[in-house]
């Protein structure tokens, strides 16, 4: 009995320490950035140009503009990645869109990769709007698509409420940040919201959502709270056995993405 009591006390003490650490280090948990040297040379199979874009508050945002090999470019996908790593990892995903005839513009959030500054929710929204305006002025495309993955889905849905994209794609989104699995294990709410559920209803363009049944980071139950907010013409694609990081390994993902982008 004494051993059992000690185990219970030890477990509770460990949990208490964890929730205290999470409370004080929320930013580290949410924004899992990996910095890159200014001299870092990106290398990808797709052709791309690199930009350092200065925002109105003097922060430099690093961006990669991937080019499709198709003779006629169908449009631009403005892609907002997940909460970890940097463009050296996320640039590998550009091919999913360039092979369909789209160019892709990806950015690293503040504090990620070669981008300077410090990430927070308000800053990510600000930078997304700034980059969109910059791209609209610099490039001439017939079709403009916003696409966000995980944390980036909230950035994408926010941007779609302040602009007029032709399409909006969300991959492994949560209803809001507290709908993610990690948030369900703590007795308080994160200081950041990153809500999708408060933004989808007024968006006019067609929306597609991808989610897997075995996502242990963002439970399908969280994403399903977004389904009632979709319009009749929108799509919610559930991929059996799909996880948080591997949806592109499933044929149905590419099939539905192609149908969505080529309509």
How would you describe this structure to a colleague?
- With 263 residues, the protein is of the alpha/beta class.
- It has a single domain (2-261), classed as 3-Layer(aba) Sandwich (Rossmann fold), CATH 3.40.50.1820.
- Helices cover 33% and strands 21% of the residues.
- It has 9 helices and 10 strands.
- An 8-stranded mixed β-sheet has the order 2-3-6-4-7-8-9-10, sandwiched between helices. Strands 1-5 form a two-stranded parallel ribbon.
- Helix 7 links the parallel strand 8 (167-171) and strand 9.
Helix content: 25-40%
Spans of 5+ residues with little confidence (pLDDT < 50)? none
Question: According to CATH, what is the topology?
Answer: Rossmann fold
Query: Termini separation (Å)?
Result: 66 Å
Quick summary:
With 263 residues, this protein is α/β, with parallel strands linked by helices.
Task: List its salient traits.
two-stranded parallel sheet, eight-stranded mixed beta sheet, 263 residues
Question: Which helices and strands occur, and which strands form pairs?
Answer:
Layout: H1 2-24, H2 26-30, E1 32-33, E2 47-54, E3 60-67, E4 75-80, E5 84-85, H3 87-90, H4 95-98, E6 102-107, H5 121-138, E7 144-149, H6 151-162, E8 167-171, H7 181-184, E9 206-212, H8 220-224, E10 235-239, H9 251-261
Parallel strand pairs: 1-5, 4-6, 4-7, 7-8, 8-9, 9-10
Antiparallel strand pairs: 2-3, 3-6
Helix pairs in contact: 5-6
């Amino acid at each position: 009995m004494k051993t059992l009591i000690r185990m219970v006390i030890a477990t509770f003490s460990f949990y208490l320490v964890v929730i205290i650490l999470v409370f004080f280090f929320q930013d580290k948990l949410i924004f899992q950035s990996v910095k890159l040297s200014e001299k870092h040379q990106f290398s990808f199979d797709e052709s791309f140009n690199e930009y350092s874009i200065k925002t109105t508050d003097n922060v430099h945002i690093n961006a990669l503009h991937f080019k499709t090999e198709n003779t006629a470019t169908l449009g631009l996908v403005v892609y907002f990645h997940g909460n970890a790593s940097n463009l050296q990892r996320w640039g590998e995903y550009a091919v999913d869109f360039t092979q369909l005839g789209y160019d892709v513009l990806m950015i690293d959030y503040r504090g990620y990769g070669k981008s300077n500054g410090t990430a927070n929710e308000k800053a990510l929204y600000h930078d997304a709007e700034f980059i969109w305006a910059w791209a609209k002025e610099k490039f001439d495309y017939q079709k403009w698509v916003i696409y966000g993955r995980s944390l980036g889905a909230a950035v994408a849905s926010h941007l779609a409420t302040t602009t007029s994209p032709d399409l909006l794609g969300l991959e492994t989104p949560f209803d809001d940040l507290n709908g993610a699995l990690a948030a369900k294990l703590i007795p308080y709410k994160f200081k950041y919201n990153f809500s999708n559920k408060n933004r989808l209803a007024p968006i006019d363009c067609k929306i597609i959502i991808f989610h897997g049944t075995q996502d242990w980071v963002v439970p399908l139950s969280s994403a399903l709270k977004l389904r009632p907010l979709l319009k009749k013409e929108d799509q919610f694609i559930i991929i059996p056995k799909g996880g948080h990081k591997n949806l592109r390994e499933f044929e149905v993902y590419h099939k539905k993405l192609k149908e969505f982008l080529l309509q």
